[in-house]
Design a protein that fits this description.
Layout lengths: L2 E2 L6 H9 L7 E2 L22 E9 L9 E11 L4 E12 L2 E14 L8 E16 L17 E16 L10 E9 L5 E3 L8 E3 L3 E12 L2 E12 L3 E12 L3 E8 L3 E11 L6 E12 L4 H4 L2 E10 L2
Antiparallel strand pairs: 1-2, 3-4, 3-18, 4-5, 5-6, 6-7, 7-8, 8-9, 9-12, 10-11, 12-13, 13-14, 14-15, 15-16, 16-17, 17-18
Length: 315
């Protein structure tokens, strides 16, 4: 999960944002592909009721050296008879001079509230082990004598957790019927901080509780569907980021989509499905996304790009 700080993440501002007494504020990017929603809301684990193995890579703000890079490996496994789903992922996130590694496990349990014939309300929890690596040699500073600036290398671990819920109006056949959904989650539930006093600095990298919410609808016509959605991220100190998206899909053939973020980011994505991989019920999914910054500093940040590869199997 790439970190977005209060100010724009460019080398000259990175050190100011991290080491100021106000503490660093983080706002996770909305996942580029819908299949990764469970990384932000554990109740979305197994949302499609199919087993899925996936990998993703993101390079953000490619216009300058040391821009964020993220790689993720994950799985989702629905267990229909027990009305639950399991998931897990490993996330590697580089934002010089820091590297974040994260291992997460998710669990979602669903039941039928009866508001609609085949609806489902899911509650999800997530457990996280976070590792932060810091290399002072990669730190860009204007005043090397500032007593907030740490030096040397640091390797720290911390535990964290997340929880959320998701409501879907129809789960009887997610590929053939339309439905609407909404959910919300809170992340960073275990407060704490990474301490840099051992490196001769008084700075602290402090965790804060974050939240997100999503609402969307899948409108199906024969083998085509359209899925408009809204995703909102919230961080401490009233930091909001809103994403408006529309996904068009020919079921089990291809998809395309467009997304606009209130952080002045426009994204376009496309992907294909390849049937009968390894078995008649196996489906390979490959997608890519390009993001373009708008506004006064668009040229400084540069564009972003994403890749996604997943294998889906329906029991």
């Amino acid at each position: 999960m790439e970190r977005q700080f209060t100010n724009v993440l460019i080398p000259a501002l990175l050190s100011v944002c991290i080491w100021s007494e106000g503490h660093a504020q983080q706002l996770a990017n909305r996942p580029a592909f819908n299949e990764q929603g469970y990384l932000w809301n554990p109740a979305m684990t197994g949302m499609g009721q199919v087993m899925e193995l996936s990998m993703a890579y993101r390079r953000q703000w490619a216009g300058f050296e040391g821009s964020p890079k993220t790689a993720t490996l994950g799985f989702q496994l629905p267990i229909a008879k027990q009305q639950m789903s399991l998931g897990g992922f490993f996330n590697h996130d580089e934002v010089q001079p820091m590297t974040f590694n994260q291992i997460g496990m998710t669990y979602a349990y669903g039941f039928r509230p009866g508001l609609h014939k085949n609806d489902r309300f899911s509650i999800g929890i997530m457990g996280l082990v976070n590792q932060q690596l810091f290399d002072g040699l990669d730190l860009v500073v204007n005043d090397p004598d500032d007593n907030l600036i740490p030096g040397g290398e640091l390797n720290q671990f911390a535990l964290n957790a997340a929880a959320g819920f998701l409501y879907m109006s129809d789960v009887s056949d997610v590929f053939g019927k339309g439905y609407f959904y909404f959910g919300t989650a809170a992340t960073g539930l275990i407060l704490g901080s990474f301490d840099y006093t051992v490196l001769g600095s008084t700075a602290r990298y402090e965790n804060r509780i974050h939240a997100n919410a999503v609402i969307g609808v899948r409108i199906v016509r024969d083998v085509f569907l359209i899925e408009p959605s809204v995703w909102v991220d919230y961080a401490y100190a009233n930091i909001f980021n809103t994403h408006l998206g529309v996904r068009l899909e020919m079921i089990d053939a291809f998809w395309t989509g467009i997304n606009y973020s209130s952080a002045n980011l426009m994204s376009f994505q496309a992907g294909v499905y390849i049937k009968n991989i390894l078995s008649k019920d196996g489906l390979l999914k490959a997608g890519t996304q390009g993001s373009f910054n708008m506004g006064d500093i668009a040229a400084t940040r540069g564009g972003s790009y994403d890749f996604y590869l997943g294998y889906q199997y329906m029991f």
